[in-house]
Amino acid sequence: MALQKFPRICPTCEASCGLVIEADQESGEVGRVSGDPDHPSSQGYVCPKSQAIKALREDPDRLRKPLIREGGSFREASWDEALDYAAAGLKQVLAEHGPQALGVYLGNPTAHVAALQMVSGPLLGAMPALLTGAAAIDNFARNMVGAFLYGNIGNVPVPDVDRTEFFLIFGANPLVSHGSMFGAPGMPNRLKRLKARGARLVVVDPRRTATAELADDHFAIRPGTDALLVLAMIDTLFEERLVRLGRLEGHISGLDDLRAVAAKFPPTRVAALTGIAPERIAQLARDFAAAGSAAAYCRVGVNTQSFGTLGVWAIDCLNVLTGNCDAEGGVIFPEGSLPVFTHDAYAGDQPPYGRWQSRVSGAPELGGTVPTHAMWEDIETPGPGRVRGMTIIAGNPVLSNPNARRVAAALDSLDFLVAVDIYLNETTRLADVILPPGDHLRHSEFTLIWNNWMVEDVVSWSPRILPPDPAERTDWSIINGLAARMAGMDEPAYDLRCAVRIFVEAGAAAAAPARWGGDRRSVGPRRWRGLSRTHLRCPAALRQERGRLWQPSRRLVVDPPERDAGRHFLWADGARPLPGRNRYAGWQARPCRGAVPRGRSTAGAGDRRRQIRPRDAAADRPARDAVQQQLDAQPAVAGEGPQALYGDDQPGRCDPAGHCRG
Question: How far apart are CA 364 and CA 350, in angstroms?
Fold first, then answer.
C-alpha cells in the first residue's frame, strides 16, 4: 500500500477547514487525517470532528446499496430499480391526490455538499412540494431578522472576531462549534488571540460552556429570556444617551418604535426574570457602547426560544445602535463565492415572508419554507391538498424534531416516503425506499455557501481523492436521477447533471490559481463600503437599485419584525409569558433531547424546578432565588417535561428489518 497525501475540505461543520488525507487511490484505503498547513484560513488547525470523514466511510452500519421495503423488512436493489421505484411511488401520489400532495424535508448535511445544494432547487422544479427542513428549527429566527432588518433572508452579520475589542456572545459556544453562521477555522486560537490583545470576551448562556469558561465574564441567564436582557440594554442606551449610529446615521428607520418597545423593559423590571441584577445589565450596556469596537453575536441558544426572532432582532439592533454594524471590529457582511445563491430578497414592497400560508394552521412561509410543525400537521389533517408523499434528504426529523412520537406517526401514515440517507435510522426505517449516497472522497467539493458567513473571504475547492465507484452514486447523482424520472426524461438528457458537474468539477475556477483559493491571505473580512454599493453578482433587477441592502427604502429597519411586539411581547409583571409568540416557535422549536438548558426538570412533568450547578448559579444568587420562588409558586403544567415531549422513544441503530434498538 502506497499512501499519498491529498488536500480536502472538511465537510463536518461550517468552518470548512483544510485537511490533508493520506490515501491509496488503487486500494481505496484511507490512513491519517490531519490539518493542512497550506490552507490560508485554517493554517493547519484540526479538531476531532475532522476524523468523522474516515470514520463514516468505514462504519459497518453505513448503507452501501439502495433498500426497498417489502412487507415488514428491506431488501437490497440496484440503482435503476430503486430510482424507478421511488419516482413511480411519488408519481402515484400525485396522480391520486394532486400537485399539492408532496413534501420535501432537507436535513442539515445538505448545506455541506455543494452539488446537493444546487440540485435541491431543480428537484422542486421537477416535483413541486411543500418544503421544510432543519433550518426551520434552528435558523428561521435569523432568516426572519435578515428579511425585515436588512431586506434579505441571507444577509447575516458576522462578528469581526479578529479585530473586535469587545465580543458579546449569546447562546453560542464557538470554542467548540467553530462558529455557526460565523465560520472561522481555528476558533480556539482566534479567541485566545482576542484575549491576548486585551479585548474583552463576555458570554450570556444558562450553561457554563467551554466558551464561558474562557470568557472574562459569564452571565448565567435564565433560559429563554435573552430578548428581555437585550431590550433592557437597549433601554439603557437610550436613557443614558449612549446611542451612536456612526456612519449609519441617516440610513436607519424605526428608531422611535424601537425606543418605545425597549422602554417597557428597563433593567429593574427584567432583573428577576432574567436572573441578572439590574446594575450588571446596565453596566454591560455601558461597556459595550464604550468599547472602541464591539460585536454582539447569537446563535442556536437564542434562535430556538419561544421569542427567538425578537431576541435575534434585539441583538442586531444592539450592534446598530452602537455604530458597530458594518464596521471594522463590529459585525461585517462578507462576500461569498455566490453571494445570492441562498438568498431571497424583497420583490417590490413584498418581503420574502407571508406570500402564502400552510394549509392547516396558516403558518406563513419564509423564503419558500414552512416551519416543521406545519409539515407534520399537514400530513395528519385530512382535506384537499393533504401531503401524502414525501422525500427526506439527509435528515432524521424523528430524532431531531421534538415530539418524536407525533413526527414518527405522521411519517408512518404517508402513502409513500423516499429517504436519501447513509443510515437506517429512526426516520429512514419508515421509508419505502432508501437511497444512500456514496463515499465523500470520490467526488470533488467546493465551499458554495459558507463563504457568505465566514470571517475571511477564502474559497476552497478540492478534487476527488479516490476514483468513482460504479456501484455508488453521489448525492447530486441520486437527486438528479430522481428529478429526471419525475420530469419524464432520461438521465443523459437531463442537463441538470451536466450543469452541476461543470460547476463543481470546474469550481476551481472560482478558487484559482491555487487549490485553496489563490493568494487570499491578505484579503481580510470585506464589509459594506456604503449602503448604496452595487454588488456586481446580484440579480439584474437588484443591481442598480439596492446593492447589498435590499430593503425597498434602502434603510436598516430597526422597528420590531412583529409590529404588535409591545403588546404581545414577552412577560407580564409576573413570571408567566403573555399570549402571542414568535410565529416561528412552537412545539417544533423546543429544546431537543440532550439539549434541555442546564438541567431537566427534577421530578418529571409535575415539577417546574430545574437543577442548577453551583458554578452556574454563583452570580446574582438573590435574583435567582427570586425567580425560583416565582416558579415554585406557579401551578404545575400537565404534560411538561422531556418525557411528555418524547415519550419512551430512545435513539439507536436500526436493523435491516427496520426495528430500532436502544
Answer: 13
- Beta-bridge partner residues of 73: 70
β-bridge mates for residue 6, sequence order: 21
Q: What pTM did the predictor assign?
A: 0.80
SS3 169: strand
The second-level CATH assignment, the architecture, of 4-58 is Single Sheet (2.20)
Give CA separation, 160 vs 312, 315, 599, in Å: 18, 15, 33
DSSP string spanning 5-68?
A: EEEEE--SSTT--EEEEEE-TTT--EEEEEE-TT-TTTTT---GGGGHHHHHHH-TTS--S-EE
In this structure, which CATH number among 3.90.1150.10, 3.30.70.20, 1.10.760.10, 3.40.228.10 belongs to the domain 130-381+536-571?
A: 3.40.228.10
**Mean of pLDDT values over 81-104:** 96
Q: Look-up: residue for cell 428537484?
A: 123
Give the pLDDT score at 282: 98
Supply the DSSP string of 196-218, one letter for each residue.
HTT-EEEEE-SS--HHHHHSSEE
- Among 99-103, 113-117, 438-442, the minimum mean pLDDT is found in 113-117
Q: What's the pLDDT band for 414 if we cut at 50, 70, 90?
A: very high
C-alpha–C-alpha distance, residues 416 and 92, integer Å: 9
Task: Tell me the pLDDT band of 495, cut-offs 50, 70 and 90.
Answer: low
Tell me how far CA of residue 495 lies from CA of 199, 481, 499, in angstroms.
52, 11, 6
Hey, how many other C-beta atoms are within 10 angstroms of the C-beta on 463?
Answer: 14
Cell output for 181: 453562521
Provide the CATH number for the domain formed by 67-128+388-448+458-511 in this structure. 3.40.50.740
* Most distant CA pair in the chain, distance: 71
Residue extent(s) of CATH 2.20.25.90 domains in the chain = 4-58
Cell digits of residue 563: 409590529
pLDDT band of residue 500 (cuts 50, 70, 90) is: low
Q: Of 354, 157, 319, which Cα lies nearest the Cα of 245?
A: 319
Question: Quick one: pLDDT at residue 551?
Answer: 57
Q: Residue 298: what are its φ and ψ, rounded to 5°?
A: -140, 160
